[in-house]
Design goal:
With 133 residues, this protein is α+β, with helices and mostly antiparallel strands. Helix content is 21%, strand content 24%. Strands 1, 2, 3, 4, 5, 6 and 7 form a seven-stranded antiparallel β-sheet that branches.
């Protein structure tokens, strides 16, 4: 097989396939101009999408654990929930996208498994006075 792909046969293959790669004797095509973007012209300065301002927390106090959310400066009423075993007093768990992060002490700040009560609170749509349905 090695003898088959060396010497004059290799030159023949290159000569045969090189015009096919260039398109042969066909004239080169010029790219068509792009159509004007009507969305940009109708909205002169559209702002980029922003991250949601609401944050969901599960916090542990000396007496209990509670789930609440904070939207800018507005704190929702707290809902009592069972405490995760490894959450210490003064620490809290925050939903960050599709994962959760433990906060409170710098030594223990790390990603953790999201508690079910916190995930269900994060999935609930805001109320009628809290924004979009």
């Amino acid at each position: 097989m090695r003898v088959f792909f060396c010497g004059p046969f290799r030159v023949f293959l290159l000569a045969a396939f090189l015009p096919a790669c260039r398109g042969g004797d066909a004239p080169e095509a010029t790219p068509a101009p792009a159509p004007p973007d009507t969305a940009r012209s109708s909205a002169p300065s559209a702002a980029p999408p922003r991250r949601p301002t609401i944050r969901h927390y599960l916090a542990r106090t000396a007496e209990r654990c509670e789930v609440h959310s904070v939207d800018r400066d507005v704190v929702s009423p707290a809902t009592q929930t069972p405490c995760p075993q490894d959450l210490q007093v003064g620490e809290r768990i925050r939903v960050m996208g599709k994962s959760c992060l433990r906060e409170g002490s710098t030594e223990r700040t790390q990603p953790v498994v999201c508690p079910g009560a916190l995930l269900s609170a994060a999935r609930e749509p805001p109320g009628p006075d809290g924004g979009a349905p």
